[in-house]
Amino acid sequence: MVEIDPWGQVNIKDYSRLCKEFGIEEFSNVLPFISKPSLYMKRGIIFGHKDFHQITKALKEKKDFVMMTGLMPSGVFHFGHKVVADQIIYYQELGAECFITAADLEAYLTRDIPLEKSREIAINEYLINYITLGLKPKKVHFYFQTNWKKEYNNLSKFISKKTTFNEIKNIYGDTNPAKLVSALTQVADILHPQLKEFGGPRPTIVPVGADQLPHLSFTRDLAARMKSEFNFISPSATFNVLIPGLEGGKMSSSKPESYIALTDSPEIVEKKIKKYAFSGGQATLEEHRKKGGNPDVDVSYQWLRMLFEPDDKKLEKIYNDYKSGKLLTGELKEILIEKVNSFLKDHQKKREKAKKQVNKFLIKD
Amino acid sequence: MVEIDPWGQVNIKDYSRLCKEFGIEEFSNVLPFISKPSLYMKRGIIFGHKDFHQITKALKEKKDFVMMTGLMPSGVFHFGHKVVADQIIYYQELGAECFITAADLEAYLTRDIPLEKSREIAINEYLINYITLGLKPKKVHFYFQTNWKKEYNNLSKFISKKTTFNEIKNIYGDTNPAKLVSALTQVADILHPQLKEFGGPRPTIVPVGADQLPHLSFTRDLAARMKSEFNFISPSATFNVLIPGLEGGKMSSSKPESYIALTDSPEIVEKKIKKYAFSGGQATLEEHRKKGGNPDVDVSYQWLRMLFEPDDKKLEKIYNDYKSGKLLTGELKEILIEKVNSFLKDHQKKREKAKKQVNKFLIKD
């Protein structure tokens, strides 16, 4: 197993190396062929892909395609999760049929989270925020791994025929029966939209974080091995960099100082950014004015680039001003605080309305 | 893995050794406590058990209990299969709720049998013969592993959390992901009737052939490990000797000379017994009259004892006459041929009526 974890600072060179190691394409190669690229695409937040041309082709020829991704219901919904949520909505707006799995089985098998707890988190934290961010009920299947159709369950078992313990071990490292069952279920999550009961073989885009890379490679291999029986088209995928945690390390639901939740209050936001956000500034004001800061390692700047400042010119000015020492760390943090709280004020208001729509997305038992 | 396969000649001493090795009780110990023992019980065809007292207790106290067993849909239904079928019906008549799994998933994963083929065999060979032998639709769940409720599927995955690769390897020997998934599914087959969705924790009797012994031990261990979460009662089990094949080796669906199918014609029955049935007689008529035959290794005699001669006195006379040389091998075979064909004439007539009842047993999709 290749160590992809943790992603502390964002260093695009590491991602380039990753592309080479896993044989994935740099996203910049397909960018010119996308008519309406998202900000994540343009800014290189989405840095790599597999077979994205299948999606551009489907879009060009106005053919059906699927967006498939999942969530691990393990805590509050924070800005790290927003990156995938925005991509779901992006593909829905382009016409994709969306399959979103709430990985309650995996949460139970690998993290001991009870199913009821998973259900609550998946709905209250994830689904409601998806809706608030713009997800519409049309052509969306938001399902739980323990509560989905039998053909999906059967597929997760059929897959066992096409792999070996050694392969699983090479991909997932130290493993056990529960991890194996989780892995087989995840493969079924990605491939089942192509079963005839769910719409048949179609190009599928799987937008995921860079940490899912080995898993996607495995699934694509299995799709090829099952082609004669199921006629699967190997799923396409994009890989996004992981948003750095406030302190510069990995953003983690179990470390509140590493993230800002979409339910955090303005006071909490201000406090977290002021107290924890890793700075690329100098030790003293005088030194900063003289030598300038380093926006490439400054988390406030990275968050603006990745999440909060869509205007390239404004972003460039911030970059240059910080680098020259004109913009101080405190001032940069204030820009971020203002942006985050402005976003959250609107989001949290819309969230109340979104709550009422939840039932449109849930499968009746 | 202990080698339990193949069972050639029936030698009760081997089964006794097996009881000791696997820590199972000899069935004769509980026989006095059963008010209406079956012929299989009285004759020692059912030679061992685990926790059968839970069943005698449920019967005595008129409490609910479950009968659970399965079939591997891999060929024609022959007299080897009848032993389990008769036990299913025996427990149904005692009031058990019956769960019968058609192991189509396992047939696909471990023997490459397509699901449609399994379905056809399970219904035409097994279910129709069960009905002909006396199975009634009341309180029977005849289901396919790929077409049963989600709680059952989920259980088969939850079980993965409670075992290790080493344990699986020790029990099943050389293994792979498909065999692991099959094993977990089989455990769910046995335990799921105790989920609240299927009636809750109750004593369960699993009547199986001796070859299923390691699997039952594994399932009982898992039931104990899952007790705190699911309140499972460890399933009880009985183990029957395997009916010897005509030639004295293992009876196998893939070797027509080893079995008599319940659909065989009188001519085929006569031909198979005359040509193939392993004899305990002497090489010449003269020698046989002088030295006598050996009924303990004679397959015709064993089939009479196990399947076709319920009258102890008549059986004893046949035994003694054969042993003394009074009864010749040809004559013994004629007795068996007459018994088999008499049974099959009646069975095959009733079978036509049974066909019309099939739909009462099948789950609507």
Topology:
The structure is a homodimer of 365-residue chains.
Chain A: H1 12-22, E1 25-26, H2 39-42, E2 46-50, H3 53-60, E3 66-71, H4 79-93, E4 97-102, H5 104-111, H6 115-133, E5 140-144, H7 150-158, H8 165-172, H9 177-191, E6 204-209, H10 213-225, H11 227-230, E7 236-240, H12 266-276, H13 285-291, H14 299-308, H15 312-324, H16 329-355
Parallel strand pairs in A: 3-4, 3-6, 4-5, 6-7
Antiparallel strand pairs in A: 1-2, 2-7
Helix pairs in contact in A: 5-6, 5-9, 6-16, 7-9, 9-10, 12-16, 14-16
Task: List the main descriptive attributes of the protein structure presented here.
homodimer, alpha/beta, 7-stranded mixed β-sheet, 7 strands, globular, disordered N terminus
Report on the structure:
- Two copies of one chain form a homodimer.
- Chain A is an alpha/beta fold and 365 residues long.
- Chain A is 50% helix and 10% strand.
- The first copy, chain A, has a seven-stranded mixed sheet with strand order 1-2-7-6-3-4-5, with helices on both faces.
- In chain A, strand 3 (66-71), helix 4 and strand 4 form a beta-alpha-beta unit.
- Chain A is globular.
- Chain A binds chain B through residues 105, 108-109, 146-148, 150, 153-154, 157-158, 160-161, 163-165, 168, 175-178, 180-181, 184-185, and chain B through 105, 108-109, 146-148, 150, 153-154, 157-158, 160-161, 163-165, 168, 175-178, 180-181, 184-185.
